[in-house]
Amino acid sequence: MGQIKKFFKRKNINISAKKYGIDAFSAMAQGLFASLLIGTIISAVGEQFKIELLVTIGNYAKMSTGAAMAISIGYALQCPPLPLFSLAAVGMAANEAGGAGGPLAVWIISIIAAELGKAISKETKIDILITPFITVTSGVLLSVFWAPTIGSAAETVGTAIMWATELQPFFMGILVSVLAGIALTLPISSAALCAGLGLTGLAGGAALAGCCAQMVGFAVLSFRENRWGGLFAQGLGTSMIQMGNIVRNPLIWLPAILTSAITGPVAACVFKIQMNGAAIASGMGTCGLVGQIGLYTGWVSDIAAGKKLAITTADWIGMLVVCFLLPGILTWLFGLFSEKSDGFEKMI
Fold first, then answer.
1. pLDDT surpasses 90 at 223
2. Phi/psi zone of residue 199: left (φ > 0), alpha (ψ -120 to 50 degrees), beta?
3. 116 sits in which H/E element
4. Among 7, 201, 256, 301, which is most buried by a count of CB atoms within 10 Å?
């Protein structure tokens, strides 16, 4: 056992929940953003303005999704160059074989292939052949035998959540919104979670509402301490920077959580907001306005598919109210009634 520990230490193989569940998962979300999400946005712009070149660029970006996710995971796990680059094939295989649950399959299989690649890296005199062979072969074989099952399981869970939200939009709107918002502020990736489960439709809209409640809510709550820099850093960046304050005083989280419990069912029941863009956008909130761009690309796709006649004024009002106005107003009001919510320190 001691020899194994020494070997793992020498190879920088750190088996831990943080490394795999936080670092790798969060990195995967960046890979998704840099491929599928940005490709969807570029394609939507091209289709909207009839610019064929942009559509082509966007399609190429979307085609690289699996490879981008896997390489991002390998980067988070600090893979040496050869196993890192070899993960491109692994990601493409896992994402394709995983179907709708491809991102979750890529996450699991890329971690295993990356660690095997790290373990064998520079252990032989023909490293240039052996390391890519082990990394690619192990990853693709796992993709062939495991990815369909992993993807199917993820799709089943995601479908169940979306079905339940359609059936009970009020209660599921609360549940999905609160959980997605909490995941966004915790040091894990709500975007990768939504992508892994393929969370779209009403459930995706509720998830977006919960994420916006956290980001805009914390930006408003801590405005006195962080002023405009903090407003933009949290409102357009991430509420995760408040985790230190939350650990010191968990009650400061309550206003944002209560707000998400309201905005979720408002999104699902009142405005019937559906995220029909890329599922990753459901977990992005107002970060770079990606969630709102996702809504817009979904509207455009629905119009192109004949599911929607046009983008209406009600669509824009729903986005504005659920994503910006309600989160800011409600969190501020809940903060006034929460005596223990005054626990913010200057972060920016």
1. no
2. beta
3. helix 102-120
4. 256
